[in-house]
Amino acid sequence: MPANAKTISDDELFYGHKACAGCGGSLAVRAALKVLGPNAVCALPAGCMSAVGFNFPQLCFANNAMITPFAATASVLSGIAAGLEAQGKSPAEYPVVGFAGDGGTADIGLQALSGAIDRNDDILYICYDNEAYMNTGIQKSSLTPFGASTTTTPAGRNVRGCATQKKNLFEIVAAHDIPYAATASIGYLPDYLAKVEKAASIRGTKFIQVIAPCPTGWGTAVDATVDIAKEMVDCGLWPLLEYEGSAVSGQPAGRLTVSRRPRQFSPVEHYVRSQGRFKALTDEEVAGVQQFRDNLWQRLEARL
Amino acid sequence: MKRFLSGDEAFAEGVRLARPAVISAYPITPQTVVVERLSEMVESGQLNAHYVHVESEHSALSCAMGASATGARTFTATSSQGLLYMAEVLTYAAGGRFPIVMMNANRATALPWNIYGDQRDSLALLDHGWIQVYAQDNQEALDLALMAYAVAEHPSVSLPVMVNIDGFALTHTYEAVDIPEQQQADEFLPPYETRNRFDFEQPVNLGYSAGPEFNRHYQYWHHRDMLAAETVIDEVEQRFAQVMGRQYGGMAEEYRTADAQLVLVCVGSVAGQVRQVVDQLRDQGVPCGMVRLRYLRPFPAQRLNQLLAGKAAVGVLEKDISFGAEGTVFTNVNSALAQGGNGAPTMNFIGGLGGDDITAAQIRNAFARLAALVESDQRAKGAPAAGSQWAEAAAGKASASTPDPVPTGIRRAEILSLPQRVADEYPRPGQPGATSSAHSSNCVVFLGVDDEGEVA
User: Fewest CB within a 10 Å sphere: which of A11, B29, B31, B74?
Assistant: First the structure.
């Protein structure tokens, strides 16, 4: 039965944590575990979700779960999967899932992730992307977008926030011919839940990058998290995608699909201007963000 | 069954007999042969294990930790820079109480880049919470692969064990090794059972944060259980001897120390050489002996004090230097002796760095220096200086020159073969002009460099 508002479990598997009000990351973890169920084994590196959920004696995972070294989400997941398989427990029945932030995935954890995909270990890697090192206090990661003011890319007179563009992690992952990769947003929860469910049904390595806004780091209201996560999709800055590798799609080049194609993009300017982190951007620079969006889609269309 | 095996190959046989469920492997010289042999064993079906080709040492140990958390017996191996690269994971694995067994092929650490054997890699990580044991020969390497699991997985220990094998001196040197039968290995080492694992009836969170209020409890338990491992190690060796018929010397092993006055403490494969020199010097009337530290964590302080009680002088010969201080083994030995009230003067001999040979002549000279230390000690007390006869006897075979008498009561590190004139540029402790900050540097002599400062 597809996971949706009607069918989703009432069981809470991630609760009692101390995440900030309006935290998108905790919603991503909570919702994924509702789909994956109590048999899922979780691994989380240093980052927001481990910092808010793993404080002895208040341990917030009802599942089996463990902390990993920062760079080691994927390699610990591989070890868990190998250990379970060695004892006759299939990851099909006992999903092995990691929840790591954008820094933990696209920066320090990228090597281990690449290794796991290369081995095609039967794991699900979920990157909750809040676009900076939020746990340490909002520092730039390689998934921080252009123009975002962070505590290491402070917007000032000379430089207006992050000078680099958001790294295309999804394409990097897909380039491994991974069985399944997807982008998602906690603003479109049914799409995210369906992708988690689909990923769990596929054997081999699966990867989902879910946009999970952080009111603290983004400079947004705590009750705006879901709206802003929606708007990022609607304005085209975050395409919802699926990649099924050659083994799953049966096509040598794999199959890339757009899960949600906005008929008309909502204004990038509104998305940017509604967040404190972008407040130093000039109109010209906002136009540059829109150009980035257009380039992103042009590149995407060429691949479809 | 006896076979002619390198240390790496012998260790791989030991791992095979231990039946690990998961092996994570990344190659590095001189460890590589271990992971090659294990992959062949998995390929041929001799060993039924999941072999994970990780992309780094950091991932090798992380993967082992994940597997161990499921309750699976796990193995990994590394060396030198690889060990240092996974250093942060060492504390995770130890703090998480995952009884992983890891072989470390002891190798020098860069720079200068060097693939040969010394022990700076593992000694730099003594404080990372692992049990550390050092093999003397290839038979011991194989046997330690089995015993390490028995110690690590013991319920009152539950800690990872690093088995150290000297790079090249053991890893790539062939010896006749007795390989136990699988049936014997199974009798000795039952399947791994633990409560420190994921549980699908009652899920657990393994590894989490613990703030100041709780943290000290975890650290104390870790320390307590590390100390308790000493008893477990003895039990495990007894059981091993019953099943396999080979008995090891526990935390530290001694050679001719009972009536010795001059004792050299060493670690690893160099013990074989020291033993030979002890025999030669004994024939010349020098009352010398040797202690080989097998375990450095937990540190066998009590055993060491038993073995060294009443000795005239104690030397520590090690393939390691903690720059700006002294050899790390020396620091540990001195601390144990001080705690035990043993007032024997001690000296530190640093050699074998970067795979350098430690020669019999250097070892004889080390004993001669210990004898000279005793002599000056005896003269200072107005006692008959038997030490001078020992010094002459020992030095006579070592070199033409009698070793310099050295002041007593001072801890000194001697880096084997450092030019004497370098040492002379610094005032000796206790002499006019000596400052406390000069005390370690002026005592350091490197083995293998002549008095003119030329590298031999």
Answer: A11
